[in-house]
Amino acid sequence: MALLKNLCKNSLLVILKQINMKIVIPTNSKKGLDDQIAEHFGRCLTYTFLNEKGEVLEIIENIGEHMGGEILPPELMKEHRADVLICHDLGPRALTLCQKLGIEVYTCQTETVKDCFELWQNKKLKKAGLNDVCENHRK
User: Fold this and answer.
1) Which of 24, 40, 67, 128 is the S-S candidate for 132 at Cβ 3.0 to 4.6 Å?
2) Cα torsion angle, 6, 11, 17, 23, sign
3) How many Cα neighbours within 13 Å face the side chain of 68?
4) pLDDT beyond 70 at 121
5) What is the DSSP letter of 38?
6) Planar angle of CA 89, 50, 137, nearest 5 degrees
7) What is the CATH number of the domain that holds 47?
8) Is residue 9 part of a domain?
9) What is d(CA 117, CA 54) in angstroms, rounded to the nearest whole number?
10) How many CB atoms lie within 10 A of CB 111?
């Protein structure tokens, strides 16, 4: 009985997380869904956060270490409760830290936030692994 109770509780937590999921996409301005996706997530000017319906929740400035701050970009995303990161490229250190923080990472090569989100929503994006990191960061 206790096993069944725990199973139900865990299933409910998974469902609730999916309902309240927060997706972050690195961008270079504050144009929301029409914004262009930044080429490298750690060096973008802004991060656009969406809910699981694709609605813009917030757009924040990148205050990460690449932009003169002291926080690592994945830590900044986690502070804003990101569950999913969708980006063009990232390095192996960033991917590993995202995974450690519980942020799922997907790569996408489309131009706009809207197009990228729609591919993710329709399960057309592949979860990123170490073989998917930016070529410049593999050396």
Assistant:
1) 128
2) positive
3) 2
4) yes
5) P
6) 10
7) 3.30.420.130
8) no
9) 7
10) 13
Residue 70 lies in a domain: yes
Give the residue from 121, 101, 102, 99 showing the smallest Cα distance to 110: 121
Average pLDDT over residues 38-58: 94
With respect to residue 14, please indicate whether it lies within any of the assigned structural domains: no
Mean pLDDT score of the chain: 86
Extract the tokens encoding 17: 């997380």
Number of domains in the chain: 1
Residue 126, domain member (yes or no): yes
Closest CA to 20 of 63, 49, 40: 49
**52 contacts 21 by C-beta, under 8 angstroms:** yes
Mean pLDDT value of segment 91-99: 93
Q: Which domain holds residue 54?
A: 22-137
Considering the entire predicted model, what is its pTM?
A: 0.83
Q: What is the CA radius of gyration of the chain?
A: 16
Give percent of the chain with pLDDT exceeding 90: 65
Side chain identity, residue 25: I
